[in-house]
């Protein structure tokens, strides 16, 4: 039987890892698919650069999609990233009926609908496991294992950089700035860390996962996104006192709409996660996704969410599936329903509030009064501690409290009437029901 | 488009849950597969028994496979359990090219090779996600996501009953007997708990998973199996002192053979699992599987390992995949290689030892000497405590120690020369490398 001709778009960290995997694990691929796989063409931006493991005398190395198409690939793996010209390339491939597996998160998040439509029209496959959470097989779990079930909620730690930073802050009491500097030193964080620390990366991943989980098209701009740059060492310490960890949680949840039917609430925000919750134990650069629904209960999957070899293993898994299956329902857009996005205050939950207030009698009473006036009741006051004079004779106190379940808008309106500084407001995840 | 005709074998807890799921989640199945699914026939042992949700005027209810075949099912879901006549029925279905999804652990573990061969010969599919760990999609992860990778080790908590019992012993300090009685009261354990507590259930699941993970045929009798009935409240308490939990761990590991090549070590045994290890946090009746290999790193998946609705959701996931894909590589036996089973002493690891010894001077020296004579060195002596007189004037002491890595056979031989009673010997899992 002839070998399967695989073309790669991109030969950077992920692309070269995939190339190496397909060479080194040739036996495994053959065992799984009963086919031999050969990388016959690679598209790169700079054809003149020497690349280890890439021999231009045996493999076509080109910067032209036309040449790549002329090499007659059976399947194409995309690891070049970016929106353009990648989108254009993938459309051209899909239009010709060539199956594509991709690791491109932003492209799937922003242009998934268009890409799926073109794949379906050409009766070919577009797989994208590698675009979310590296080696963690969450796309397959949602698209196939849970396809006949009803998902109520998806919670994820989808960004390894921020989870590494928050883990370091919890373990060592370091500041946000120090945790970021260490993450940058170790290569976990980019020189410009905005995508990671402001939750933009997690929001793109959430929009992909929520779209599959709820069978609806999710606009990444509908994800209410708050980063971790406002989280202080103090907040992390207070969370510990409350028996919780602070995690950047990406959450998609089905909510009952007041008029009947359902909406979907989408947010990425730092949250207090109780120690007993499965996501609390996810430390370091690990990713994890928890899916809750009927009748399967609760499933959690965790693993390496980034890295060239790890992401390459997800591409290879998709490649195996493409080789092993005829064009099928996986050619089609998984987004078939439409769920409206829930308004911000559709969901009430407990909140953690930390702020600096003037240290004078009656301040707590004033805060409690302001909250009560907006229907927010205090569950627990954790701390009201003087923080020393500010040089003008007046002194300040740090006030930390948790609320009973309340709408975030009510809490925000109430707090706007309180004079305070350096304020952190974080939603709190409920503890799971006791298991044993 | 015509509906897909689904026949069920068995209508007990799992079968009726699946039936209900396919009715209630009809929209989800249609969204995923673009097909309507209808349960047109059900095979049961006793056709006269009334069954809620099963209307014999609209659905064929029969005890005859011939009648079921005559109803022309497109796909069959097996949830009747047992070896015969189930095996015979599945062979008859597969021979006719009818795809089968099954929840039958013992059947796949004992007769998987025969069933896969017949499915492949007829170019039809046999899927079996539901046969291992209920809703946890570990079979799909191993067969597809990780098919192109190299798996080094698979560790699982594959039995919910024993994990529930060990969790209760750890949380409440209860005895083995009390934990078993509670598990029986709650319906987690059968009146005859042998299959669960002696590790037989976990061994069958491990043989299925190891077969896929390592692409080899695994005889369930090759799994070295020790149950938890010898684990005492004392052992659980000592484990805590050592920063560990006792878990019934199912483990399949690739080992280098002395003469080159590889062997596979297969065991189910209670182990000390360090608190920081991902499996230590799995409490209650939850199942979890950790897979370690290249280049994906470490993946953990956890969820409900039993229960009618949970198992039904795994059957439904397989059903969706069958409907969505043409006969493919999944028709074929995943067991293509042959790995010899490693001898018991192929692997050295740390061990926990607890025993009662005579409380007289020199006993520890004698134990240490006996161990040293067989090349086993003591890492740490945790406790040597007098336990009170036995009425004859002599008294006994409880001795708890851990060893440096040693072969289990050497340790056993050494301990055979030591006079002691009530002895527990458990291997110890290594802690994961620090993540943050």
CATH superfamily of the largest domain in chain A: Dihydrodipicolinate Reductase, domain 2
Shape of chain A: elongated
CATH class of the largest domain in chain A: Alpha Beta
What is the third-level CATH name, the topology of the largest domain in chain A?
Dihydrodipicolinate Reductase, domain 2
Q: What percent of the residues of chain A sit in helical stretches (DSSP H or I)?
A: 25-40%
Oligomeric state, counting identical vs distinct chains: homodimer
Q: What value does the average pLDDT of chain A take? A: 90
Secondary-structure-derived class of chain A: alpha/beta
Distance between the termini of chain A: 54 Å
- Largest interface (C-beta under 8 Å): A-B, 70 and 70 residues
Summary, kept brief:
2 copies of one chain form a homodimer. Chain A is α/β, with parallel strands linked by helices and 436 residues long. The first copy, chain A, has 14 helices and 17 strands.
Question: Can you walk through the features of this model?
Answer:
2 copies of one chain form a homodimer. The first copy, chain A, is α/β, with parallel strands linked by helices and 436 residues long. Chain A folds into 3 domains: 4-127, Rossmann fold; 138-305, Dihydrodipicolinate Reductase, domain 2 (2-Layer Sandwich); 348-427, Alpha-Beta Plaits, CATH 3.30.70. Helices cover 34% and strands 27% of the residues of chain A. The first copy, chain A, contains 14 helices and 17 strands. Chain A has helices at residues 13-24, 26-33, 65-70, 86-95, 105-121, 138-145, 160-172, 176-185, 194-197, 200-214, 233-241, 308-324, 363-373, 408-416, and strands spanning 4-9, 37-43, 60-62, 75-78, 100-102, 126-127, 150-157, 224-225, 244-256, 262-274, 286-294, 297-304, 340-341, 351-358, 378-389, 395-403, 421-427. In chain A, strands 7, 8, 9, 10, 11, 12 and 13 form a 7-stranded mixed β-sheet that branches. In chain A, strands 3-2-1-4-5-6 form a 6-stranded parallel β-sheet, sandwiched between helices. Mean pLDDT of chain A is 90; it is low at 327-332. Chains A and B meet through α1, α2, α6, α7 and β12 of A and α1, α2, α6, α7 and β12 of B.
């Amino acid at each position: 039987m002839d070998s399967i001709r695989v073309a790669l778009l991109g030969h950077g960290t992920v692309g070269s890892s995939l190339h190496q995997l397909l060479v080194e694990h040739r036996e495994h691929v053959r065992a799984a698919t009963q086919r031999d796989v050969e990388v016959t063409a690679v598209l790169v931006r700079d054809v003149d650069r020497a690349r280890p493991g890439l021999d231009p005398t045996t493999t076509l190395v080109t910067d032209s999609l036309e040449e790549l198409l002329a090499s007659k690939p059976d399947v194409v793996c995309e690891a070049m990233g970016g929106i353009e010209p990648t989108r254009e390339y993938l459309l051209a491939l899909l239009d010709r009926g060539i199956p594509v597996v991709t690791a491109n998160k932003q492209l799937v998040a922003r242009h998934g609908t268009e890409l799926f439509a073109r794949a379906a029209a050409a009766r070919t496959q577009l797989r994208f496991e590698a675009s979310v959470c590296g080696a963690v097989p969450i796309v397959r779990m949602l698209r196939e294992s849970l396809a006949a079930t009803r998902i109520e909620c998806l919670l994820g730690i989808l960004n390894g950089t921020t989870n590494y930073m928050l883990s370091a802050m919890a373990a060592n009491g370091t500041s946000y700035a120090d945790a970021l500097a260490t993450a940058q030193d170790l290569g976990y964080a980019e020189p410009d860390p905005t995508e990671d620390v402001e939750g933009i990366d997690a929001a793109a991943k959430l929009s992909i996962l929520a779209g599959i989980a709820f069978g609806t098209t999710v606009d990444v701009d509908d994800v209410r996104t708050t980063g971790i740059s406002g989280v202080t060492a103090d907040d992390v310490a207070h969370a510990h006192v409350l028996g919780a960890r602070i995690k950047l949680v990406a959450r998609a949840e089905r909510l009952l709409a007041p008029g009947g039917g359902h909406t979907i609430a989408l947010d990425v925000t730092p949250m207090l996660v109780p120690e007993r919750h499965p996501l609390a134990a996810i430390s370091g650069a690990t990713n994890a996704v928890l899916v809750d629904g009927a009748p399967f209960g609760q499933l959690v999957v965790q693993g390496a969410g980034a890295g060239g070899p790890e992401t390459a293993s997800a591409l290879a898994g998709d490649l195996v599936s493409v080789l092993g299956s005829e064009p099928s329902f996986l050619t089609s857009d998984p987004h078939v329903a439409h769920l409206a996005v829930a308004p911000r205050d559709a969901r009430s939950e407990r909140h953690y509030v930390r702020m600096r207030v003037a240290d004078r009698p009656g301040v707590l009473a004033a805060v409690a009064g302001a909250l009560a006036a907006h229907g927010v009741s205090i569950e627990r006051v954790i701390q009201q501690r003087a923080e020393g004079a500010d040089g003008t004779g007046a002194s300040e106190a740090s006030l930390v409290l948790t609320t009973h379940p309340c709408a975030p808008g009510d809490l925000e309106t109430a707090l706007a009437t309180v004079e305070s500084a350096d304020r952190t407001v974080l939603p709190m995840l409920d503890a799971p029901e006791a298991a044993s």
